[in-house]
Amino acid sequence: MSKKRVVVLISGSGSNLQALIDACNCPSYPIEIVAVISNKADAYGLTRAQQAGIAQACLSHRDFDSREAYDSALAEQIDQHQPDLVVLAGFMRILTPTFVQHYLGKMLNIHPSLLPKYQGLHTHQRAIDAADKEHGVSVHFVTEELDGGPVILQAKVPVFPEDDEQVLAGRVHEQEHRIYPLVVKWFGQNRLKMVAGNAELDGAILPTGGYANDDT
Predict the structure, then answer these.
(1) Active site residue 122
(2) In what order do the strands lie in the sheet with 198-201?
(3) How far apart are the C-alpha atoms of 38 and 3, rounded to whole Å?
(4) Residues of the chain whose pLDDT is less than 70?
(5) Residue 16 and residue 90 in contact, taking contact as beta carbons nearer than 8 Å
(6) Is residue 20 part of a domain?
(7) Residue 71, CA distances (Å) to 6, 46, 121, 131 in order
(8) Active-site residue among 111, 135, 140, 177?
(9) 215 lies in a domain?
(10) In this predicted structure, what is the pLDDT of residue 112?
(11) 79 and 178 Cβ atoms separated by less than 8 Å
């Protein structure tokens, strides 16, 4: 089976990108990262890509006068690499409907909460403020609703009374680096699809909270 071509979009340090790069070091991993694109020139993820021998580029949103113009140029740059999948790994941009529709069913995002709870920003502090007993991370297909696409897989972590935002974020990051490469692997194996607004794994529609099995 030929490897699926993946373009990764980042805005920052790229720790989830690194988890994917590490997964790609296994010869049987079914995807290949063909490019990493950032909207910020100082994103450390670009250095990670360079060190791994992956093509990298910066396309700053500040050089465009509208969100639509930026997303159009971004799509053009992405499509030069003929990707099978676009992976958002800390890409801090709200995407336009036209962009999302262009990659519908072929774009994944990871969000640091147990969706549908805490869409948007500051998820760790919001979980602490709500005195939640558990928090976590979700991988989902991207749709036009912000952080609202069908969930594929979630991982839960405990929230302890003494936790601050940084400590809880670190606990969540550990799970992010575990489940994102797994979901991308499923896509690369042709096991994962988005059909009629639902996430399907091995032909079965996944429940609201995504795949639920501790043996992942």
Answers:
(1) no
(2) 192-195, 198-201, 204-205
(3) 23
(4) 1, 213-216
(5) yes
(6) yes
(7) 18, 19, 21, 38
(8) 111
(9) no
(10) 97
(11) no
> Is 34 in contact with 8 (CB distance < 8 Å)?
no
**CA 134 centroid distance within chain:** 21
Query: Which pLDDT score, from 0 to 100, does residue 212 have?
Result: 73
Residue with tokens 């020139």: 41
Domain holding 129, by residue range, is 4-205
Q: How many domains does the structure of the chain reveal? A: 1
* Cα–Cα dist 90/14, whole Å: 7
Helix (H, G, I), strand (E, B) or coil at 124: helix
3-state secondary structure of 86: strand
User: In sequence order, which ranges of 130-210 are alpha helices (DSSP H)?
Assistant: 165-188
Q: What is the pLDDT of residue 94?
A: 94
Instruction: List, for residues 104-134, the tens digit of each pLDDT value.
Output: 999 999 999 999 999 999 999 999 999 999 9
In b/e form, how buried is each residue of 151-186, taking b as 16+ CB within 10 angstroms?
A: bbbbbebebeeebeeeebbebbbebbbebbbbbbbb
Residue 134, strand partner residues:
158
Cis (ω within 30 of 0) for the bond into 116? yes
Which two structure tokens, joined as six digits, stand for 208? Answer: 């609201």
